[in-house]
Amino acid sequence: MLPPKQRTPIIRPGTFSFVAAADRLRSVYDGYNEQLLSHPIAVDFDFIGESITQYWDLQVYFRSAGKFIINRGIAGDVTPTMLRRFPADVIQLKPKYVHILGGTNNTWRLDAVEGDQRRTPGQIYDDILKDFTMMVRLARSNGIMPIVGSSLPSGRNIPCFHFEPIIQCPNCSSDTRNELLAASNIALKKMTDYEGAIYIDYHAQLVGPDGKTLRPELADDSLHPNVLGYNIMAAVLRRSLLKYGIVI
Asked: FRET pair for 176, CA 20 to 30 Å: which of 73, 91, 150, 242?
């Protein structure tokens, strides 16, 4: 029997002191991270985000480039907990590039039942920009090139997703949400230009004629891309990165 090697110390963010979607995959990702760090594998791309990232089968779309790509998306995650797990799920894994996509789940707080849990569009906008800026700066300071994806538009028939018990159903804020996400995308583009990161405009290719709402054929639940939506996203990402000489 081969003797076991000594385990590699890793960063473990632990669980949060509140109900957090990020906790659902914490033990899974800790296990993945330890296995990865215990072997001499260079990570090319690390995708961190929410459900839109978790449900994106990256190997289907990008395996032909021969890159080592990992997915650290968590359904229901919000930007504050993305930021808090960033050192564990990105920095310690030392990818060449990190793809950051999120912010949509922050907007569920528009419909929070309890007033002290509710957030205004301005507060959510500020949270998204602040958290993304911090993640971009963390990546840059650790020699990782950040790739920031725009938030996607949503449709008008979003079902009730029980990510947090504070959220009431049905969804009542589709127009406000889409206006907020469009405005935050403008801010994210300016931020990435200033910070020396790469911005990927998925929104422009997924939005309908009104410039705000997701094209209905691209998502079966008005929120998460189906294969047609992911086909577009993959093409946009590949084409946009080629402008920088990056192949995925």
From this structure: 73
234 with 59: CB under 8 angstroms? Answer: no
pLDDT tens for residues 10-50?
999 888 766 688 888 999 999 999 999 999 899 999 999 99
Give the pTM.
0.93
CA distance 52 to 171: 18
Task: Give me the torsion for CA of 140, 56, 13, 113, rounded to 10°.
Answer: 110
d(CA 185, CA 129): 9
Distance from C-alpha of 107 to C-alpha of 123, rounded to nearest angstrom: 10
Question: Please, is 6 exposed, middle or buried when counting C-beta atoms within 10 Å of its C-beta (0-12, 13-18, 19+)?
Answer: exposed
Closest to 166 measured CA to CA, from 102, 109, 105: 109
Residues ≥6 apart with Cβ < 8 Å to 78: 21, 50, 102, 105, 106
145/128 Cα distance (integer angstroms): 19
Least confident of 15-24, 121-130, 164-173, 199-208: 164-173
For residue 242, the model assigns a pLDDT of 98
DSSP character for 48? E
Beta carbons within 8 Å of 239's beta carbon, 6+ residues apart = none
**Which superfamily is assigned to 42-159+166-242 in CATH?**
SGNH hydrolase (3.40.50.1110)
List the domain boundaries for the chain: 42-159+166-242
Distance CA 21, CA 181 (A): 21
pLDDT, tens digit (0-9, with 9 covering 90-100), for 54-94: 999 999 999 988 999 999 999 999 999 999 999 999 999 99
